[in-house]
Design a protein that fits this description.
Length: 92
């Protein structure tokens, strides 16, 4: 099962600068475990206590997994997963 994982700039230090990496897994959780085997340290940036970190957004084929089954969202061959850190701030 091949899944394309799009990596945000802030996490590319874990993927040797690559914008997208292949991954495998039947769920988002399994995908993150698979990514950790090839890109040590990345899972810790995405998951906390078995759930997505508060300021990490994950999209499965452009749909926010929080509105599906969260980290237990099922994946299929050919899916695309995009990881986006939430951005906040600005000046008054």
């Amino acid at each position: 099962m091949a899944i394309e994982v799009r990596i945000p700039t802030i996490l590319r230090t874990y993927t040797d600068g690559r914008k997208a990496v292949p991954g495998e897994g039947e769920t988002v959780a399994a995908l993150f475990t698979d990514l950790e085997t090839r890109h040590p340290g990345i899972r810790e940036r995405l998951v906390d206590g078995g759930e997505l970190r508060r300021f990490v957004n994950v999209y499965l084929n452009d749909e926010d997994v929080r509105f599906l089954k969260g980290i237990d969202t099922e994946l299929a061959d050919g899916d695309s997963v995009t990881i986006l850190p939430a951005v906040a701030g600005g000046a008054r």
